[in-house]
Amino acid sequence: MLPKIHKDPVKWSKPHVIPPGRPIVSDCSSETYRTAEYLDFFLNPLSTTHPSYIKDTDDFIDKIKNVDIPADSILFTIDIDSLYTNIDIKEGIQSVNNIFSKNYDKKRPDKELLQLLEINLTRNDFEFNNEYFLQIKGTAMGKKFAPAYANIFMADWEAGALRQCDKRPIYYYRYLDDIWGVWTHSEDDFKIFLNTLNNFNPSIKVKSTMDRNSVDFLDTTTFKGPTFNQTNRLDIKVFFKETDTHALLHKTSFHPKHTFAGLIKSQLLRFHRICTQKEDFHKATKVLFTALASRGYSRTFLRNCYKRFLQIKPQIVSSLVPLITTYSDSTVKLVREIKKNFVDSFKGRELFYNHRIIAAFRKN
């Protein structure tokens, strides 16, 4: 049971004492593990085809950084309450069937996949405290296909729910059970919009946050800042949850020395990608360095890492040529030889200028 300590302590199961929990049952080495993996192979590519899909923070930033936002608009976020455990099994299977129909593939064994999905969802039993339980609703969070399955269900849900709404957001993006959007109608209209979403399916309930200036989403805060005042485009900065202790690798850990500098560089790169204002980048860096100082990192080491980061010159981005093959000792050697000879073989050919080979190993 993973405690949800980031939730409001007032709303905990026992306020300020016992937080709500997220039940996780590992599916590794279970009877259905291989079938769950097989299902994920087919479901995962289909789970990213809906228009609201967000892959990660970088994808979210790419989608919103160049959009114009009306001056009087409202920013909002929506959270789906306990999505994984609240998906009705029959409705979830129907959503998968719907997306199979929309994306027909004669090589895909749709009938068998739906049967396997039903088995995985209806026969998920586990033992706890010497008692046996059978999950009768939702999907186990430990199932490999669970994120893709939930995404497909939510895509079906939001398509139907949004059709019921007289007024809709001008921008609407979703990362699994977290939604971000821009509302250009009245606050009363937004309440009607939320009410419509909550009444569309009795199993799915939503909670929202709205503000005319800023909202937190994933690990970002989107807000109407200096950029908005000039171009009507949102500014973005790093969002740290109150429960974020920045418990990164301790300096006394027996890791290779370069690991510590690499860790700091990766965080600074993340801050740099997210923040649109230098001031916000510096603030996020200060928060990180304050936390790292208490974990054994000297001020001199942190300062040197920061200076090296600022001195990094942008490199020319190479176009990647993926060499897709099944992993084995022989193919590793083959890829190494191809990489070695690629530049010489295509030297002088403009088509392959600034290209490089990368290995992409498929599952065996």
UniProtKB/TrEMBL annotation:
<dbReference type="Pfam" id="PF00078">
    <property type="entry name" value="RVT_1"/>
</dbReference>
<dbReference type="InterPro" id="IPR000477">
    <property type="entry name" value="RT_dom"/>
</dbReference>
<dbReference type="InterPro" id="IPR058912">
    <property type="entry name" value="HTH_animal"/>
</dbReference>
<dbReference type="Pfam" id="PF26215">
    <property type="entry name" value="HTH_animal"/>
</dbReference>
<feature type="domain" description="Reverse transcriptase">
    <location>
        <begin position="1"/>
        <end position="228"/>
    </location>
</feature>
<protein>
    <recommendedName>
        <fullName>Reverse transcriptase domain-containing protein</fullName>
    </recommendedName>
</protein>
